[in-house]
């Protein structure tokens, strides 16, 4: 193909054609990093003759992976696109080939949060725990932490211990967090489940213990490329280092100004210090922006310039002038949504397809008002909400049927054994659970063994067993899409939805079938039920996106790496964006980078909006400092702001910035220090809570220790 090198600038050409060694591209938003990456892939395949299966191309989301596959297919005309995937998805591929190294079966299960919650629910019920003992969110964090601390013994433990041994630990545990931790490991092991973090850790562990497997993957992956490198975390970095250690061909691209996942453990350091870690690193810089109008680029440059911890660099626009960046201040959230709806209708009247319009916000809950107004205004929209599609009831149910047939695991059994009703209600489930615990078997096996018991008279238990048997035999014969359709039909699940008259749910099932079909086309021979189930747990909303002509709604995090002709960024209020959770100067800079990511998604038009009103805690909402970070001359306000609102906002922001400076200094006291508080009197520092930026202080006059913000005025007690 001759168009691979067309439409590339000098730096991109260099990045695409320099194929050997360590390369780093540090470049601004919309400067063509991802484009360089996909053209490089095509160049390797079409010009060098490298095999796609020898190239690993890591993207940040599944959606980005799908888009890159499309681009590369168009460039090479080849359907084989090798490993273009997220780190997690790549790890699933490794495990599908090599998980036997840790004595796990290929039918291991990838667990998403909903699966983990279902396991927790089981444990809580069994052991009489309630959410007051620990919320599921906290429990997940706790498990994650304990697994980390136990690293590396954790694997040995998980791999060596039988389900029975884990069960014993669980049954003997007394403290709530021990019960939850061991109960979870037991559940995980019983179904050979792996959560997201396990995926990478298991791969690293297998590489550690089995040099032959490691070498096989190292030799196989002749070229490794990584997009969005500014948001790589320690585990991913370790994996990448191992993988490139044989051929030593590594090509990474990133933009330090778009680091938005440090809260999840990512670090921009890996990008900035890349040249110190590897030898002969060549660095390519690109600053010209090909995505957005000069107006949008100017606003984005002004915004990010307010960050102090950064290398100064401005994006240089290349496109012709466009519409001004607009700022609209609304009196209420409803009014804000209505203004956006009208603007959208106006754009549509002037010929903009709705699918070209995207609304971005800081957090999911902000979509509620928009949805209400859009429904009323009859504006079609699609929400991209990370987990939404694949965590819908009907989708989970359908996938559970597939899993039950393939794995006969407890999670799926619990979900669908009695949907549609088979008279297997709570009492009979409890009977099965007790039997399963006593005999250390799965619920399905329990039912198989006890189905002739009186308790299952007048139930459809036998029919359920027959259904699973029959379909298990079909797994290797039918394509997944057909299996799914038949299963939904013969299980009576689809009929159930039909009698319930829920068209939306049926539509979603149709969408799911479509996504299975797409998967088969994408993966060809590899598209077994096992691989579908393993990958589906990693999928998110956007992956099953329909091509319908509707406005898109999503969080800024979801929009990372994407571009849209028309962007509305709404909810730009203090306490919302920047989020009120920000307590440090670094945190504030990350919020500003996130806002920068939002600005730089827009191609033709960018509109910023905010709404007055009150937060849940009663505090008043002011326009975001991010609006004031952009020179007034670069924005077109739809109306003048009330001067009092402006001065109040300024005061509020100033005092907040002062607070951030104070906390930036870190704790001034340590445990054991004697302090004096102007109101509470003297006391002693017991502990420091760095997450909350607070001290735990035992005041002499109060019996219990109290958390006191580091912002509070504490003086060192005069020594006696
Ligand atoms: P981000 O930081 O947001 O991920 P990016 O650097 O990956 O951005 P791309 O998505 O690769 O940028 O490119 C942005 C837009 O500019 C795309 O529409 C792309 O097709 C276009 N583009 C990239 N390079 C060129 C070029 N040399 N000539 C014309 N258009 C280009
Ligand atoms: Mg990109």
From TrEMBL:
Keyword field contains Hydrolase: yes
Entries under InterPro entries matching the protein: DExx_box_DNA_helicase_dom_sf (IPR013986), DNA_helicase_UvrD-like_C (IPR014017), DNA_helicase_UvrD/REP (IPR000212), P-loop_NTPase (IPR027417), UvrD-like_ATP-bd (IPR014016)
Protein name: DNA 3'-5' helicase
Similarity field: Belongs to the helicase family. UvrD subfamily.
Keywords (A to Z) from UniProt: ATP-binding, DNA-binding, Helicase, Hydrolase, Isomerase, Nucleotide-binding
Record-annotated UvrD-like helicase C-terminal domain positions: 294-561
GO BP term, pick one: recombinational repair
Catalytic activity as recorded in UniProt: ATP + H2O = ADP + phosphate + H(+); Couples ATP hydrolysis with the unwinding of duplex DNA by translocating in the 3'-5' direction
Residues noted as binding ATP in the record, renumbered to the chain: 27-34
Cellular component terms per the entry's GO annotation: cytosol; DNA helicase complex
Superkingdom, taxonomy of origin: Bacteria
Alphabetized GO MF terms: 3'-5' DNA helicase activity; ATP binding; ATP hydrolysis activity; DNA binding
Record domain UvrD-like helicase ATP-binding: where: 6-293
EC number per UniProt: 5.6.2.4
Entry annotated with the keyword RNA-binding: no
Organism: Sporobacter termitidis DSM 10068
